[in-house]
Amino acid sequence: MGYYNPNLVHIPLESFTYKTQSDAINGPQTIRTSKWNRGGKDWEFHGHVPKECRTLFEAFRQGATNSAGGLCLGWRNSGLLPFQWLTYNEVLLRAQNFGSGLISMGLSPGVHSMVGIYARNCPEWVIAEQGMYCYSMVNVPLYDSLGPEARAFVMAECEMRIVVAFDEANVRSILTSAPACLKVIVTVRDVKPRLVEEADSLGLKVVRFSEVEKFGALHKREEVAPLPDTTATICFSRLAAFGDTLLGKPKGVMLSHLNIVSATLACTLQLGQYAPNAQDILFSFLPLAHTLERCCELSVFLAGGAVGFYSGNLHTLTADMKALKPTILPAVPRFLNRMYDACVTTANKTSFFRHIFNFALSSKTEELYKGIVRRDSLWDKLVFWSVRHRVGGSVRLMIVGSAPLAGNVLTFMRAALGCIILEGYGQTECVAPCTLTTPGDPQPDHVGPPLACNNIKLADVPDMEYFSVRGQGEVCVIGSNVFQGYFRDPERTRLAVDEEGWLHTGDIGEWQLNGSLKIIDRKKQIFKLSQGEYVAPDSVEETVRRSDYISQVPVGGHPCPGVCPRGLPQVLRHRRGRARPGCDLCLGEAAPPAQRLLHCTLQHEGGKEVHNGRHGAPQQGGGPGLL
After folding, report:
1. The model's pTM
2. Does residue 527 contact residue 622 with C-beta atoms inside 8 Å?
């Protein structure tokens, strides 16, 4: 007879086991569906979405009801100040006033009114977004890495008349790329009079965010709530990958309210008892311009939980988390890699502590494979308390996305933090997630089963010798989270989504024996970095060949961090004739000679840290990190 362990992860679904995580639909093609969606085999993808909550407008109000007047948005202006909070009722009132202010300034309700948001994560971002939804308007996120030319194209293409900017830096960036259609810049923070005069000389009016709210409060307009199929947002990428080339212009992904709500509710459904609740606090530092962060925040809003924003400085993230003590943390591989590197460096300071550290890690990892996730063991109190303290000490749920995460890093984080860490896969065209690992699954190097909002199939790619009969092929998605199309680009929409409604992602996947998906390759000759940026390998090759120490170099990408090329042509010339001090690849005899020479040369040439225990992990970004 067994015993009850309160730390044992439980999935309350009779048909689910970790050995059979998804169901197959019989037919000429192998299509897999979520075990959390009984209607998946009948191509029904809306069963998990309540009829009374199918738009972001309705979802936020449901959260306000669930919170019972609780806290909603928190922020602090510097690392020395405490967090300040707005309640759900206060946010709703400000959103209504801001939306009414936009209408009073000349915009009309409906999807033809598109407003840009060029700001870092802050309460005004959410207030502006919800204000637009009050009148069925569309928000279009803008961000720094979009670049002036792409930013000007987006504003002109969407015929933006109003853009919300955070501070002077954002306003200056807008002024350098302002199209003729732009008339008003709404600033969250005050800007210098000289900048206002400069904008006025260009025919642009600069107004404060608070002034728009006050104007809207004095001129209330009746709300025009959106429908589920109403476009909620258009997300533009800096460089758009299409086929085997980079487009000369950004492509805008149109997502409806139902797209976003359906994808978010599918995630919370799979999370079960580990889903966000009204007592949770999410720490927001990933850009709201990307759909991963917005889905995570929406899941918290739906439950009536709170969201706290970082203070604006990435160097003080640890201080912000210690002050906020979040329970939910969306993250990207680069963030976890830095934590992992810092922990490994600390553990290696003395031989004694390294042995203790490794023994503690082995013990906690063994518990993970028994289905036990906890942070109250002896090792948690003696060794891993400092790791938890880096993220505030209260994190119970972490969601990782945007790029592959090395298996050893993922396992380490699960053991050290003692919380549920999930890894998802998707792209903006399917909101963000289309697969998600299940709570308690200790196996790394896969991205989990399909979500309840979509089915997934693998299509043959003969040129690359990937065939669905072998369980390999291009990942294709169909469901309620698949986007409406590319903005004003029906031709590319038809190429991305076939006649049957399948979205072709360009990623090569492989079904695992347990029904989960693993990403193994790319169909497109374009690399997407963890920052969300696209890089063409030929341009990287061109840059690397400029080095005096390299005559030829092949550039390749791999979805799993830590993989380096082997058997490179012996055309590399290492003129310095000595190893760089502290260079693991130069000193490590286990690495192939060409591999050691290539990485060492890149180190000498670029002066940047390329390998830090994971040998050129792609999520570190930049040219050398791709090799």
Report:
1. 0.85
2. no
